[in-house]
Amino acid sequence: MLDDLLVVGFDLSAEREVHIGERPLEQWRTLGYRRRETVVCFYCWRGIDAPVGTKVPLLARGRIGGLVRPHFAHPAGTAPPGGHSRETVWHVNAKHRLARWADTLSNVTRVQMEQWTPDRDRRADVHVTLDDGSRLALEAQRELITDELWQARHRDYAAAGVRDVWFMRPDTRIPHVLFAEHTPAWTLYHRDETAEARLGEPHDRGPQWWTRDLRLFAPHHPPCAGDLVVRERFPLADLGLDADGVTFPPAMTERLAEHTARVRRDADHARSQQPAGTGRAVAARSSRPTGPALGARPVATGTAGAPACGWDTVLRGLPPSARRIPGALRAARTVLIRTPRGCTPA
Fold first, then answer.
1. CA-CA distance, 190 to 187, in Å (whole number)?
2. Residue 190: is its pLDDT beyond 90?
């Protein structure tokens, strides 16, 4: 697919990687094949699938408004046999695309590529600093990553005070550990400059559902591990960044808020339909101790004419010598639990 075939250039004059979207096509053509030839294939120059320093001036192709989007290409016969690794091409393009996107956002103060954390444990594909001081690592993941490796990277970023944000290559499976750790994952498409989110389907409403996290009963992002998911795709230019990661466009944010508000109304209605005191009774049952604490001596009150049942009552029925026998108190408690129906609890 085109996502895997785009070529990144290297400007020999500026000594840096360059992307087709950074300048108008005509300027790139002036610097490319059979002109100045200062823009060469980044992969060949760096020794990826070719000897280090291989100089292959690039063609700038595409038309404004045309069916073929602007892109760099090798002149005929100059690409390595079989072309460059699709994963490598996607990854380098993804870094550039994410960096250029982040740099357009009004709340972003600094964007750096291949930036190490202060302790040099991790190197972010794209490191972003927001105007509130938050730091993000935009990670372009080109292949399946194991749960263990992802968790190690995630922990290292967290220890450095950096929020990791994950963009996956199309057709790359997203590890469930991301969703188990409540971490969103996006799929990045180069061909139309879009990003796709996965949202969890609303959970089934079981008994007492209104006492749980109500967000789970509306479409929720990120999904829970094992959720059925729906996919929502957006132009990258419509997305934003904040301290928690990628933010949805306003229309999507409003849509999710409407779903959540509807769930809250349903929960309020369900709660109001419960018999009076039901909620308190459920809470009382859940907090009621299963038996008297060791050493507790409740007063036996009872109702008139009915035998009172409590520790005092039971213990008074034991001879003094029996109270010193090991296990006697346990036996007394058994007596209390098996009290006849006519006995009134103390």
1. 10
2. no
252: tokens are 């999507």
Residue 15 burial (CB count, 10 A): 7
Pairwise CA distance, residues 127 & 336, whole Å? 67
Residue 261 confidence (pLDDT): 97
The secondary element (H helix, E strand) that includes residue 88 is helix 86-103
Give just the sign of the alpha carbon dihedral 315, 320, 324, 327. negative
Transcribe 287-334 into DSSP letters: HS-SSPPTT--------TTS-EESHHHHHHTS-HHHHTSTTHHHHHHH
Sheet holding 194-200, edge to edge: 108-116, 123-130, 135-141, 163-168, 185-189, 194-200, 229-235
Q: Label residue 162 exposed, middle or buried (CB < 10 Å: 0-12, 13-18, 19+).
A: buried
Which helix (H) or strand (E) segment is 284 a member of? helix 278-287
Query: What is the dihedral sign for C-alpha 247, 249, 252, 258?
Result: positive
Q: How far does Cα 318 stand from its chain's mean position?
A: 62
pLDDT bracket for residue 60 (50, 70, 90): very high
Q: Which of 99-108, 174-183, 330-339 has the highest mean pLDDT?
A: 99-108
20, 70 Cβ separation under 8 angstroms: yes
State the Cα–Cα distance between residues 218 and 227, nearest whole angstrom. Answer: 12
CA distance 108 to 100: 11
CA-based diameter of the chain, in Å? 111
With a CB cutoff of 8 Å and minimum separation 6, the contacts of 206 are none
Are the C-beta atoms of residues 218 and 202 closer than 8 Å to each other? yes
User: Smallest Cα–Cα separation from 43: which of 70, 1, 82?
Assistant: 82
Three-state SS sequence of 145-206: CCHHHHHHHHHHHHHCCCEEEEEECCCCCCCHHHHHCCCCEEEEECCCCEEEEEEECCCCCC
**Between vectors from CA 243 to CA 239 and to CA 248, what angle results, nearest 5°?**
25
- ω before 170 within 30° of 0 (cis)? no
Residue 85 DSSP label: -
Judge whether 165 and 126 are in contact, CB under 8 Å.
no
